[in-house]
Amino acid sequence: MDRKGPRRLAELTWPEVADVAGRSVLVVPVGSTEQHGPHLPFTVDTDIALALAERLAAVREWVVLAPPVHYGSSGEHAGFPGTLSIGRTACELLLTELGRSADAFAAVAFVSAHGGNAVPVRRAVARLRGEGRRAHFWEPAGDPSDSHAGRDETSAMLALRPATVRRERSVPGDTRPLSAVLPELRRGGLRAVTANGVLGDPTGAAAGTGRALLADWAADLLAASEEWHPGE
């Protein structure tokens, strides 16, 4: 088939996949369904992971883009209605089994935009590598004092899905660095740290800032993907 834009698994048939899988990397966006303050939707992490993976797939002809994983390890957000979490163990198992099922591909790479997924994704990648499979992991870097539903994520959503952002409800949360709130967060969840579910200050968010941030993240992902090249 003629290729226009990212090669998406959702748009291919199995014979088309068979033609390219052995020289392609399956890229799986990994997000979450969790609260992001009173002003952002539950899909922020998935939206960002998918947007970045799409940008990668658009310029790497050897990438096949998988449908995103919408659920992750978000137990720390359980105090806020609507958060849906599968926990660390299930998340690790889910990604491990996805990686195992992708053996037709030269490699699998997980692009995660939720910090709570870092441990289970890294464990899944380690297990897959221990089994002799090629597996990779990437996540965006962030400001430790703006780690959840603050300026960066709000700006990114203003760039990606502006209609979902309730600007009038944007108010600061706890603006201490993540390292300073982690002990309390681990004991009582995010609700014990911030009443509105925000770690950071979203009031200065802007679409232009979001576009620049997404471009920086995409460039970092592109650079990291150099090591994923499947070869001939």
Characterise the protein shown here.
It is a single chain. This protein has helices spanning 14-20, 44-59, 87-101, 118-130, 151-160, 178-188, 207-224, and strands spanning 7-8, 25-30, 63-65, 107-112, 135-138. The chain is α/β, with parallel strands linked by helices and 232 residues long. It has a single domain (7-227), classed as Creatininase (Rossmann fold, 3-Layer(aba) Sandwich). It has a 5-stranded parallel β-sheet with strand order 1-3-2-4-5, with helices on both faces. Helix 5 (151-160) crosses helix 7. It is globular. The mean pLDDT is 96.
Order of helices and strands: EHEHEHEHEHHH
Helix content: 25-40%
Number of E-state strands: 5
Q: How are the strands ordered across the major sheet?
A: 1-3-2-4-5
Task: Assign the structural class, choosing from mainly alpha, mainly beta, alpha/beta, alpha+beta, or little secondary structure.
Answer: alpha/beta
| CATH A-level architecture | 3-Layer(aba) Sandwich
Largest sheet: 5 strands, parallel
Task: Draw up the topology in text.
Elements: E1 7-8, H1 14-20, E2 25-30, H2 44-59, E3 63-65, H3 87-101, E4 107-112, H4 118-130, E5 135-138, H5 151-160, H6 178-188, H7 207-224
Helix pairs in contact: 2-5, 2-7, 3-4, 5-7
